[in-house]
């Protein structure tokens, strides 16, 4: 894998996995320091695993002999064998202590010769697994471009599920590399998430055509140069993280985004379409634009997604005598069970907030109305919290018809009213307001119940318009 | 008194704790028994003799208000109705129901709901799948296409709970075409112009077909959708069955930790579906060979690729796809003694 680094010539290859970032880089300490102690230990064990040891060799005494003029002042003596290094981390695992000691051990001890790009990528993705809400994601839909509609009259194809483009992430990376290599250098890291049914692609971009860029080492930990693409399993969606970039750095990233589409089109005649959903939480995206049941039924229809109103056909009890908790909690043995993250445990907690105890008939009525409007969504613990909801209203202010006629055409370009809700869980908040009696659950439009499953919408007369105007 | 109050919370009596746990366990048992009782009562109410008894002596029940049968009759009726709808769900797999959208801005018409039940391998039913269809009124189109009247009702999928890898949009395009959607009609016209005479030759007797849209076929739509859902469940079950056979599934149904001993007969260390869809299955052998095979909807292995250190292992590939290709017997075909006993290729 090691490429000779003597000749510096522009190439079209990607940045190598084993390009080392000096361990003394302060920002490296910062970016690794985001991880918890356990995560750092897990990473060290992964690097020291027999199958990976060739890719991430630790600094051993034999390395010391190669470069004798290395200063001896470093606090950690180099290990003799890999076994010895492993033992050190196992001891750290058994002992309780600060995160700092593991971090220092990694950076100043066993990987003092530098952290490779791949190691950094692994650390970043581990952080993402631990903090699924750390980035803002936009969901895009893959749709086939109908260049030749052969089957418009021929008998329908037998395989309906074949319509999901089978994304081979590796092929995608190859195509992407071919497209962008003349412009920028990139490092790619592909991995399947440990906690979510997603495949992550981490792309790190440097604007230099050279194999070993001479930029400051700081650049490698610059998070605005990293773009994440997530491919959820078995569904025609792609999530792309919006890097919080500003100024000049945004240029290559914007480039990248456009090439994404172009690459895809070239590869498989697919186009990416916006689905008006951006959220901070990956589970939210999976619930609203994922392979599960809840993608196309939310708000009032979430009772169907959760199968909360009717039981299995083998249940002899009439369904109106069984509580929704029981319907959801019943061990339906669907194949998706356990793979969907927003499963029964979350659902049970969602219901715990509702207790029909001593209530006046008025509030009981309201409660029923709320339940019919929101379904199972957004009660005490929503599975899909939206952090932001932007609504543009196209209705003219002032409901009376006569006024509208008096106004002539020049003033009909009324300022559109835009509403922005932001918070930890917007739909849950609206539900809470309805429960308090501030919002009338019977009269509110359906976009307030999260029924559309979008974070951006244009609304006219309570109906979401499909195309943004 | 002050001393006693301070002492009590500091050291909880072990006896008290014991009593607490006992109380909670008894409460749980009571709940279980109550649940059981409810299931028993409702199944008792749905039994044939009781339902028959209720139907036969009708005149007497009306004359005598103190008859115990008349007081429980609403319950029995509800149970009977539920029972018959359950029978429909089990027997036909697809049932329809009306649903009113609670949204104030929604159109007044009720939605047509379709419920699809799929039975899994362990005899249980999966969570039902729902499709809610919206009725749309379309204006009368000139020509003989809208035969029934001036305006015709057209169905459109509004909401559904079908997993993402089954393309509802595609099914809808084929089985529930809408004339109102100009896109579909335009494309079709364009197609007719571009494509060669094949299509026209196929339907020479129906010249009007080209300008009009096809009829909506809700039955076909539900049939194809249900077929696809059942095929998915069967694929998942087949993979699960193979995993059980290999001993990769633990006691509680969950998968065992990573390092399991390889299967003795086949040398397979891992076998799992690649994604939720369970279309592809990945197999790993103890000697480092890795394979992947594709399952068809009918449960046949369509294709297989096995790669070892020396490239493709054609012998194993042929064993996986050969012999009828049933996925259930794939492990029998992969047994080491069978493979070595069979003549080389």
Quick overview:
The complex is a heterodimer of chains A (469) and B (345). In chain A, helix 7 crosses helix 8.
Please render the helix and strand layout as text.
The complex is a heterodimer of chains A (469) and B (345).
Chain A: E1 20-21, H1 26-33, H2 37-48, H3 61-66, H4 82-94, H5 99-110, E2 115-116, H6 117-130, E3 137-144, H7 169-180, E4 185-192, E5 198-206, E6 226-232, E7 237-241, H8 250-268, E8 270-279, H9 282-288, H10 302-305, H11 324-329, H12 344-352, H13 361-374, E9 388-393, H14 401-406, E10 417-422, H15 426-435, E11 456-460, E12 463-464
Parallel strand pairs in A: 9-11
Antiparallel strand pairs in A: 1-2, 3-7, 3-8, 4-5, 5-6, 6-7, 9-10, 11-12
Helix pairs in contact in A: 2-4, 2-5, 2-6, 7-8
Chain B: H1 2-10, H2 14-45, H3 48-55, H4 58-63, H5 68-92, E1 94-99, E2 111-116, E3 129-138, E4 152-160, H6 168-175, H7 182-194, H8 198-202, H9 218-246, E5 268-273, E6 280-285, E7 290-295, E8 301-308, E9 311-312, H10 314-321, H11 330-333, H12 336-341
Antiparallel strand pairs in B: 1-2, 2-3, 3-4, 5-6, 6-7, 7-8, 8-9
Helix pairs in contact in B: 6-9
Describe this structure in words.
- The complex is a heterodimer of chains A (469) and B (345).
- Chain A is an alpha+beta fold.
- Chain A contains 15 helices and 12 strands.
- In chain B, 44% of the residues lie in helices and 17% in strands.
- In chain B, strands 5-6-7-8-9 form a 5-stranded antiparallel sheet, with helices on one face. In chain B, strands 1-2-3-4 form a 4-stranded antiparallel sheet.
- Chain B is extended.
- Chains A and B meet through helix 13 of A and helix 2, helix 5, strand 3, helix 6 and helix 7 of B.
């Amino acid at each position: 894998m090691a490429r000779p680094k003597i000749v510096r010539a522009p190439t079209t290859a990607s940045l190598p996995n084993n390009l080392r970032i000096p361990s003394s880089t302060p920002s490296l300490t910062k970016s690794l320091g985001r991880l918890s102690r356990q995560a750092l230990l897990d990473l060290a064990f992964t690097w020291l695993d027999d199958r990976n040891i060739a890719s991430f060799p630790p600094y051993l005494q034999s390395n010391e002999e190669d470069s004798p003029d290395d200063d001896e002042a470093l606090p950690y003596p180099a290990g003799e064998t890999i076994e010895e290094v492993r033992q050190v981390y196992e001891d750290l695992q058994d002992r309780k202590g600060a995160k700092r000691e593991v971090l220092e051990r990694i950076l100043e001890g066993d990987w003092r010769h530098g952290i490779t790009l791949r190691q950094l990528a692994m650390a970043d993705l581990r952080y993402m697994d631990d903090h699924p809400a750390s980035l803002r994601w936009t969901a895009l839909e893959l749709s086939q471009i109908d260049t030749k509609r052969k089957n418009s009259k021929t008998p329908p194809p037998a395989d309906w599920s074949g319509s999901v483009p089978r994304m081979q992430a590796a092929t995608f990376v190859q195509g992407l590399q071919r497209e962008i290599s003349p412009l920028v250098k990139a490092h790619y890291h592909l991995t399947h998430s440990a906690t979510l049914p997603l495949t992550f692609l981490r792309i790190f971009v440097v604007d230099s055509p050279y194999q070993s860029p001479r930029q400051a080492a700081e650049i490698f930990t610059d998070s605005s140069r990293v773009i994440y693409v997530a491919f959820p399993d078995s569904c025609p969606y792609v999530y792309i993280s919006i890097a919080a970039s500003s100024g000049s750095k945004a240029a290559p990233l914007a480039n990248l985004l456009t090439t994404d589409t172009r690459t895809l089109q070239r590869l498989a005649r697919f186009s990416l379409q916006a689905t008006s959903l951006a959220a901070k939480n990956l589970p939210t995206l999976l619930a609203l634009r994922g392979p599960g049941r809840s993608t196309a039924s939310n708000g009032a229809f979430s009772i169907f997604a959760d199968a909360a109103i009717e039981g299995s056909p083998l249940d002899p009890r009439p369904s109106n005598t069984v509580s929704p908790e029981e319907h959801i909690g019943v061990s339906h043995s669907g194949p998706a069970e356990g793979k969907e993250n927003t499963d029964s445990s979350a659902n049970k907690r969602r219901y715990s907030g509702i207790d029909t105890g001593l209530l006046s008939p008025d509030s009981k009525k309201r409660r029923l109305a709320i339940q019919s409007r929101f379904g199972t969504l957004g009660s005490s613990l929503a599975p899909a919290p939206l952090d932001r909801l932007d609504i543009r209203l196209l209705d003219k202010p002032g409901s009376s018809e006569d006024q509208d006629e008096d106004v002539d055409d020049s003033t009909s370009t009324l300022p559109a009213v835009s509403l922005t809700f932001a918070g930890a869980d917007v739909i849950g908040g609206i539900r809470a307001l309805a429960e308090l009696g501030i919002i009338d659950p019977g009269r509110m439009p359906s976009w307030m119940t999260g029924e559309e499953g979008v974070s951006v919408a244009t609304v006219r007369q309570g109906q979401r318009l499909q195309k943004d105007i | 008194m002050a001393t006693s109050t301070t002492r009590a919370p500091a050291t909880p009596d072990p006896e008290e704790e014991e009593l607490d746990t006992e109380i909670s366990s008894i409460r749980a048992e009571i709940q279980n028994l109550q649940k059981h009782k409810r299931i028993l009562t409702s199944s008792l109410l749905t039994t044939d003799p009781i339902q028959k008894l209720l139907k036969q002596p009708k005149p007497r029940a009306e004359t005598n208000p103190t008859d115990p049968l008349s007081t429980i009759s609403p319950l029995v009726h509800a149970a009977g109705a539920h029972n018959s709808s359950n029978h429909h769900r089990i027997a036909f797999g697809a049932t329809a129901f009306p649903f009113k959208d609670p949204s104030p801005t929604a159109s007044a018409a009720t939605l047509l709901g379709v419920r699809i039940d799929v039975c899994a391998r362990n005899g249980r039913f999966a969570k039902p799948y729902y499709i809610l269809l919206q009725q749309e009124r379309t204006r009368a189109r000139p020509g003989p296409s809208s035969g029934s009247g001036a305006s015709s009702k057209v169905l459109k999928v509004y909401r559904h709970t079908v997993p993402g890898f089954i393309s509802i949009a595609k099914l809808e395009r084929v089985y529930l075409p809408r004339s109102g959607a100009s896109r579909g009609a335009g494309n079709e016209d364009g197609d007719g112009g571009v494509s060669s005479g094949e299509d026209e030759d196929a339907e020479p007797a129906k010249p009007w077909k080209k300008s009009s849209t096809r009829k909506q076929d809700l039955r076909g739509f539900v049939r194809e959708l249900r077929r696809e859902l059942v095929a998915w469940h069967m694929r998942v079950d087949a993979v699960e069955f193979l995993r059980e056979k290999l001993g990769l599934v633990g006691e509680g149904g969950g998968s065992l930790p990573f390092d399991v001993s390889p299967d003795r007969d086949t040398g397979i260390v891992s076998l799992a579906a690649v994604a939720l869809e369970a279309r592809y299955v990945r197999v790993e052998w103890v000697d480092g060979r890795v394979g992947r095979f594709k399952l068809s909807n009918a449960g046949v292995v369509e294709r297989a690729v096995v790669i070892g250190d020396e490239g493709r292992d054609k012998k194993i590939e042929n064993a996986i796809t050969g012999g009828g290709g049933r996925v259930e017997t794939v492990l029998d075909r992969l047994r080491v003694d069978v493979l070595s006993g069979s003549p080389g290729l």
